[in-house]
Design brief:
It contains two helices and four strands. By secondary structure, the chain is of the alpha+beta class. It has a four-stranded antiparallel β-sheet with strand order 1-2-3-4. A hairpin with a 6-residue loop joins strand 2 and strand 3.
Length: 89
């Protein structure tokens, strides 16, 4: 299992710091687990392969392209630094 941890400052509350952990087996396209924490509380969830396909279809986006965008948004890297904004609600 692979995991990444990313510190985020959501646009909905720029003074706050959250930690976003994403874990997956093969790749994000087969589904993944997610943990969001503000350092005091943590929220967990899972995203299934079917949910990824459904979301891509809802957005009228090629599934592979959608998975690539997920990778850029959820897994820290130089190519995605500063490109994605998060809102916490």
């Amino acid at each position: 299992m692979e995991k990444t941890l990313n510190r985020i400052h959501p646009v909905s509350d720029p003074e706050a710091t959250y930690f976003l952990q994403v874990s997956w087996e093969k790749d994000l396209g087969t589904g993944f687990g997610i943990i969001l924490s503000d350092g005091q509380c943590a929220w967990t969830g899972t995203v299934s392969e079917a949910e990824i396909s459904r979301e891509a279809a809802d957005m009228e986006m090629n599934r592979e392209k959608y998975v690539e965008e997920l990778k850029k948004a959820l897994i820290p890297g130089e190519e995605s630094a500063g490109k994605y904004n998060f809102a916490v609600s």
